[in-house]
Amino acid sequence: MKLSRNPYVIVLLVFVALLAVLLVGLKLNPRDVPSPLLSKPAPLFTLPVVGKNDAKNGKNGSMAGGKAAQQFSPQDLRGQVWLLNVWASWCVSCRYEHPVLIEFAKTAQVPLIGLNYKELLNDDEAGKLLQSKASTAADTKARAELTQRAQSRAQAWLAQHGDPYTLSVLDLDGRVGIDYGVYGVPETYVIDKAGVIRLKFTGPLDAHSLQRDIVPLIKRLQS
Amino acid sequence: MMHSAVPVSTALSKRLCKLVLTAMSIFIAGLIACNGSLAHAESTSKAQQIEDARYKALAQELRCLVCQNQSIADSAADLALDLKREIREQIQTGKTDAEISTYMVERYGDFVLYRPPFKWLTGVLWAAPLLLLAFAVWALRRQIVRKKNAPLNDFAATSALNTINVLSSVEGQSQPIAAKPELSPDLTQSLAIPASASISRSTYLLGFFALLVAVGIYALLGTPQTANTAAEQAASNSNTDAPAAGAAPAVDGAQIQAMVARLAERLKNNPDDAPGWFRLARAYAVLERYKDAAQAFAQAEQRAPAQLKQDPQALLDYAKSLAISGTGYQGKAAALVAQALQVAPNEPNVLLIAGLAAAQQGRREEAKKHWQTLLPMIPPGHELEALIKNALDKLERGS
Questions:
Q1: Which residues of chain B have a CB within 8 Å of the CB of A15?
Q2: ipTM tops the 0.90 cut
Q3: What does the buried/exposed string (b/e) look like for A32-60 if buried means 16 or more CB atoms within 10 Å of the residue's CB?
Q4: Do B107 and A178 touch (CB under 8 A)?
């Protein structure tokens, strides 16, 4: 009971405890918000695919012309391990990440799906239109034009920087992004054969964390 | 006397409690008022009003993931706008507040809620303020108890007693408490408790420990290298061009003045300290007290003439001090410059002053020679470059 006799010892202990907590807090990254989606089924969606560049992929690209745009849904990849990478042409960090993805795509044995998130983000007119619900025929037509504009922007960006994606889908109004809890582009998700999210990586991937966190996980999930 | 001090200090703590309670109730009333005012949104219909209120309340309860320290109601981040749209739409489709909150938590985790749910993990978060408050109250109580028992001869206790006297006289208790407790035999007895000694020792210990921890943390997380390089830079600067760097280091003017005054005082008592005289002289030169500088240099020269002869910077400072406080670069000042030139013929500072001295004495060719040697040494764009070129022009034109 000698300890409790001197209040300053207790003050000291409390001080040390508080200090330890604060010290740990200093080392934490506030951006590392744990995703509640881990070990949950990847939210489903159906979105139009960004057309492949004409120059690169012959006929595949010109889907905007006649028929409706090709669609993609996560269910198309059931039974496969795959990666979902959120990107946009306005996203600066994506440019930093991009060479890593291109390098990865050369050797990867898994599909890399790009989720193009709010391509027309900085377009005020597009923003207004997307905030409202399409009700009239004119709205619908305007939206089709927006999709067209986003398509060409995304294609141009991929043509300029290279295209590591198996395919990319257009999430113009960002609703799929919300379903995946996207809050900072770029983000990368690893999804297993059963369609369950196994990993979420927020921020630009670098070669080191790719080799350390993602590649081994893919191998494990594939076996 | 002792027996009257006890009820008074309990009266004081009662008063404190009352004060705290009043403050808390005012604060809580304010909080309630704030929440209530949210409901008074401008809107047309009753249903719209309810919807708006729900929307606002929800938006203020949700954290903006992009900015992290703003609610989505306050944030103009793109994601916050999207989430607000989502809330609006979900309210319109008839979802309850709880359902909307769950929707957000499913996507962004508990972090999205400004009021995290009470789980075992967040329990610490919720309990911490209460624990800290309890600890503070406990410590305060102890302090009061200690004060009551401890000798009342310090200023704080006396002033507290005065306050209590004023309070009790307001309340009508006519008997004031003695403000000079050392006269009371009861209290002199209580002086025997060696409380103050043990306090000061552990206080020192605590202070020392805090210092140690602070230094440790800084070493761990800080970048002490920056301080080092700054110090090194300052040191190297003062070696090469003392007059310019003297003003730059992080010590402020008053501190320098005080240091110089102390040095001068020391030299008065111990005048044989030649390096001390050099330092004092240079300091005076930096402070532009040239007359004092010249005198100090004279003292230094008297004691260590050989050292002065080998130190071009000191020679220059001495010459400059003489020239400015006297009549320019003549006689002694000129001799000093010549000596500096002999020791360090390629030093930019020496060349600059040597040129100046030569020009003042009308030896144009010599001045030109020095300055032309100097010119390529000046970094391009430096203000000195233009000055020297200008001076050379003047020499050329013979003015």
A1: 206, 210
A2: no
A3: ebebbbeeeebbebebbbbbbeeeeeeee
A4: yes
Residues B163-190 have pLDDT tens digits of: 555 555 555 544 544 444 444 445 444 4
- Please say whether the beta carbons of A202 and A142 come within 8 A: no
Helices (H) and strands (E) in chain A, counts: 9, 7
User: Does residue A124 or residue B162 have the better pLDDT?
Assistant: A124
What six digits make up the tokens of A219? 């191998």
Residue count of chain A: 223
Query: Considering just the CA atoms, what is the radius of gyration of chain B in Å?
Result: 38
Question: Which pLDDT score is estimated for A46?
Answer: 92
Chain B residues bordering chain A (beta-carbon distance below 8 Å): 65-66, 68, 78-79, 81-83, 85-86, 89, 105-111, 135, 139, 142, 198-199, 202-203, 205-206, 209-210, 213, 217, 221
Neighbours of A203 (CB within 10 A): 17
Inter-chain contact A34–B109, Cβ cutoff 8 Å? Answer: yes
CA distance B325 to B203: 54
**Considering only CA atoms, which of B391, B319, B395 is closest in space to residue B354?**
B319
Q: Which residues of A touch B (CB under 8 A)?
A: 6-9, 11-12, 14-16, 19, 23, 26, 30, 33-37, 118, 121, 131, 133, 173-175, 177-184
The reported pLDDT for the residue numbered B23 is: 67
Residue contact B109–A9, C-beta within 8 A: no
What per-residue confidence (pLDDT) applies to B166?
56
| B160 CA to centre of own chain | 33
How many A×B Cβ pairs under 8 Å?
65
For residue A189, list its beta bridge partners. Answer: A84, A200
From the number of C-beta atoms within 10 Å of its C-beta (0-12, 13-18, 19+), residue A199 rates as middle
- Residues 6+ away with beta carbon under 8 Å from B256: B283, B286, B287
Q: How far apart are CA B311 and CA A165, in angstroms?
A: 70
Query: Is residue B379 exposed (0-12), middle (13-18) or buried (19+ Cβ within 10 Å)?
Result: exposed
Residues B293-304, mean pLDDT to the nearest whole number: 87
Count other Cβ atoms within 10 Å, centred on residue B322.
26
Is B109–A36 a contact, with Cβ atoms under 8 angstroms apart?
yes
Q: List, for residues B188-204, the tens digit of each pLDDT value.
A: 444 444 555 556 677 77
Residues of A within 8 A of B202 (CB-CB) are 6, 8-9
What pLDDT does residue B155 have? 54
Q: Reduce the DSSP state of residue A85 to 3 states and report it.
A: strand
Kindly list the averaged pLDDT for each block of 10 residues, start to end, along chain A of length 223. 64 86 80 79 91 49 48 90 93 90 88 92 72 70 85 91 92 90 89 92 88 90 86
pLDDT band at B113 (very low <50, low <70, confident <90, very high): confident
CB contact under 8 A, A181 and B107: yes
Q: The whole model's pTM is what?
A: 0.49
